[in-house]
Write a structure and sequence with these properties.
Elements (H helix, E strand, L loop, with lengths): L3 E7 L11 H4 L4 H15 L1 E7 L3 H9 L8 E5 L8 H10 L3 E5 L21 E4 L4 H15 L2
Parallel strand pairs: 1-2, 1-3, 3-4, 4-5
Length: about 150
């Protein structure tokens, strides 16, 4: 089987992980999470690239590059853009790649405005509420889906 290529896309404020509201988001940094994902990806037969931006347009631009990168799938934590970004939704529809939506916290236990996602209905899966483990669960799920298609 060929090596899978997966993009892990992190939205706004996730660069502050480790110091931002650790009671909600945990104490691991984004670099810690990325390193864990890259290592897990290797053990699952996947090469991962990671990207974080606080700017919606930069996230959209990175999604547009997915075709040129010959990606097999995406893991995305859109963070606050989950609840606001038609642009991210349109970009994901345009590139037509399988993706898993990820959230560190259980968004359904939080403020009501966080209960609406512009991406969930088009995602292959959603993982939320497990802290940084949400990412590893998403990676395992995406790899399994890709290997079984």
């Amino acid at each position: 089987m060929t090596q899978l290529k997966i993009l892990v896309l992190h939205g706004p404020n996730l660069n502050l992980l480790g110091t931002r509201e650790p009671e909600t988001y945990g104490s691991q940094t984004l670099a810690d999470i990325n390193a864990e994902l890259v290592n897990l990806g290797e053990s699952l037969g996947a090469t991962l690239s990671t990207y974080q931006s606080n700017h919606e347009g930069e996230l959209v631009d990175r999604l547009h590059l997915a075709g040129a990168d010959a990606l097999d799938g995406i893991i995305i934590n859109p963070a606050a853009y989950t609840h606001t970004s038609v642009a991210l939704r349109d970009a994901l529809l345009a590139i037509n790649l399988p993706f898993i939506e990820v959230h560190l916290s259980n968004v359904h236990q939080r403020e009501s405005f966080r209960h609406q996602s512009f991406l969930s209905d088009i995602a292959n899966g959603i993982v939320a509420g497990f802290g940084n483990t949400s990412y590893t669960l998403a990676l395992r799920g995406l790899v399994t889906q890709l290997q079984n298609k």
